[in-house]
Each structure stands twice: as structure tokens, then as C-alpha cells.
Amino acid sequence: MRIYSWNVNGIRAVSRKGFLDWVTDEQPDVLALQEIRIQPEQLKDKLKNLAGYYSYFTFGEKKGYSGVAIYSKIEPVNVSHGLGINRFDYEGRVITAEYENFYLVNIYFPNGKRSKKRLQYKLDFYDATLEYCERLREKGKGVVLCGDYNTAHHPIDLKNPDTNQDTSGFLPIEREWLDKLEDFGYLDTYRDFHPEKETYSWWSYRTRARERDSGWRIDYHFISAELKPYLKQADILTEVMGSDHCPVTVELEF
């Protein structure tokens, strides 16, 4: 099963940049999107009903903000929305699809750059996410936790680590949560295959960073330890355009 994750920075915007043709050509088994930035009444049929896919959406209450989606060739056993905590769920950041062998949790994690209050919101969201995933594991299935985490874990994961020590997205307290995630048995799938490769998944529009490949790796597929025997490959598709992020992929074989 090939699972793709992509922050599209607006699903309507990316649909005008070849998104549908890309899906047709690439044929992911599951495609998890973040930051779709759309409301139900704005979702046209061409995006709601992709040929060969079941589609599911979680919308934020604020128009033009947040939102996540899953397109799946395989019909999930169940689909749920949110973490079960209204403080977080009204922003529309979480959608979970249960499959026969695992749970896929697709999340657009908050950005902490706006203020100290927003940073704390992000950290609280992180903790709530881990608790949520651990509850899923207790049901007897592994977890694939994918999405835009809005944090680069290690210095290798961003172009300029020295000048970003005090920037949200690379703060020690944010990175410590990713350490904690690994302590609970979750594996960064890309690093498992590419331990020393400097590859990024997000580049700022404001500084034309993509042209210089001055980016950050903030999009991940973490898997719980139960799924490690089924892990076959992971990659970052840096050549795919249409957003300030690019897709990241993982392949599991059951």
C-alpha cells in the first residue's frame, strides 16, 4: 500500500496546477492532504469524486483555513474526525481512517510562530495527538501518523539550523516532542531509509527558497513499532510542484 501525504496549501489552488492529472498518473493507494482550505459548499464534484477513490474531508470552522482530506482506493473500515477535543477540533486538523491492518491518522499540526500562546497551543496539540494515537494502538492495530508536523526534528532537516535556533518550527521544546514520539516506539520512515540525506519538503514562497533548495523537512510519515516489519520504502517527491510543500510517501506491504 503506497500512502502519500501532501500539504497542498489550498486544494482549489493546487487543482489549477495539475493536481488531478498528477493523481491520475501517480495512482497512490491512499492520498492524505493537509491545509485544503475549503468549506463543504465550495467542494466541487471533480475534487469530491475522484475516479477510483473514496473521499473524506474534515473542514475547519474558519473559512479558507486548515482542513484535511483522505482519498483512498480501499474503503476504510471506519473514518473519524478530530481528536475528540473541541479546543483543537474546531480548526479541522485531524482525520483518521481505520483499515484492516492499521490506523491512518492524517494531521495538519498547528504553527507556533504567531505568539507564545499559539506555541503553547501547538505543544498541547502535540501531547493530545500522542495520547490519541496511543489509544488507537491499544485497540490492537498499528498507527501511521502522517502530515505536516510544522517542526524540523534535527539540524539535517533544515538548510540553516544555526540561524533558526529561536524560530518556532525548530525550537528545542518542539523537537523534544518528536524525540518523545520516538521514545514511544514511532519510527521516522524517511530517516530509516535515508539516515544522512539532506532533503526538504517545504520551502518559503517569500524568499524564493525552492529555487535555492533552502528548505525544511517538516512533513513526515511516522509509524508505530508494530508496523516496522511491513515497511518497504519511504521517499520525498521534491520534483512535484503546485504547493510550497511537496508530497512525502511511504510503502507498506501486508
Q: How large is the radius of gyration? A: 17 Å
Kindly provide the name of the CATH class.
Answer: Alpha Beta
Total strands: 12
Q: What shape does the CA trace take?
A: globular
Biggest beta-sheet profile: 6 strands, mixed
Proper CATH architecture: 4-Layer Sandwich
The residue-averaged pLDDT reads 97
Strand content: 25-35%
In CATH, the homologous superfamily goes by the name Endonuclease/exonuclease/phosphatase
Measure the end-to-end span.
Answer: 8 Å
Number of helices: 8
Provide the CATH topology: Deoxyribonuclease I, Chain A
Q: How helix-rich are the residues, as a percent range?
A: 25-40%
Which spans of ≥5 residues are poorly predicted at pLDDT below 50? Answer: none
Order of helices and strands: EHHEHEEEHEEHEHEHHEEE
Taken together, the total number of domains comes to: 1
Structural class: alpha+beta
* Spatial strand sequence of the major β-sheet: 3-4-2-1-12-11
Structure commentary:
The active site is at 108, 148 (proton donor/acceptor), 245 (proton acceptor). The record marks 219 as: Important for catalytic activity. With 254 residues, this protein is α+β, with helices and mostly antiparallel strands. It has helices spanning 11-15, 19-26, 45-48, 86-89, 116-137, 172-183, 189-193, 209-212, and strands at residues 2-7, 30-34, 54-58, 68-72, 78-81, 94-98, 102-108, 142-148, 186-188, 219-224, 231-236, 248-252. It has a single domain (2-252), classed as Deoxyribonuclease I, Chain A, CATH 3.60.10. The strands form two sheets. A six-stranded mixed beta sheet has the order 3-4-2-1-12-11. Strands 5-6-7-8-10-9 form a six-stranded mixed beta sheet. α5 (116-137) packs parallel to α6 (172-183). It is globular.
